[in-house]
Amino acid sequence: MGRKLVVANWKMHGNLAANKLLLQEYIRRLSPLENTSVVVCVPYPYLAQAQSILQNTNIAWGAQNLSKDQVGAFTGEVSAEMLKDFGASYVIIGHSERATAYCESDENIATKYAQAQKHGLIPILCVGETLIEREAGVMQMVVGKQLDTIINTYGASVFANAIVSYEPIWAIGTGLAASSDQAQSMHEFIRGKIEVLDKDAAASMKILYGGSVNPQNAVQLFVMRDIDGGLVGKCSLNAQEFEGICSAVA
Ligand code: PEP
173 CB under 6 A from ligand 1? Predict the structure, then answer.
């Protein structure tokens, strides 16, 4: 199965002084971990700081969004090449907090996914259903459609070495994580969907779970066959809790 991957999503938290302490704690606590790869996705203004503190460590860094366009008159946008300038290797795409608040369409998300890969960034594609959709039993249809927009435009091979993060919207920031069975079942669906189209891509992609992961529930989640790690919001802002999650893999 390979190493597990844990990604910190700091969202819009932090400042220079607090980030410095948190990143130093990450290095002290997480660098010795042998079974886990760690990535931290910081707000854009702190990419330079992440680069200067994390370079030459085994912790990678990335951003939480990118522009669907390459260059031009797009005020306020940040391009893939700009992220690369600051050593970013990863970028979160289609997080539900953005999809909802900034009306990101599946088509926009697919274009961003392609833009990231074109510039050598590893996309972390977020998919997931609302509570209403889960209660109606249509969660696989919803997640399937989110993946289809990319598959139908670019083919399933673009999932090779990429990362999909299953993030049920009802579990994000609520303290109510999906059960390990609920998560495993969706992860199996996601991998199976890619597998019928491209076996190699399905084998090389990582599928993370995100939504109220904490040190207490991480072990039950990460032990599941198709859960390759986690995307962590709130608990990534506390080095001790984040360590608890990252070491759950061991
Ligand atoms: C997230 O927003 O990606 C997330 C998983 O948040 P939290 O861990 O706080 O639920």
Answer: yes
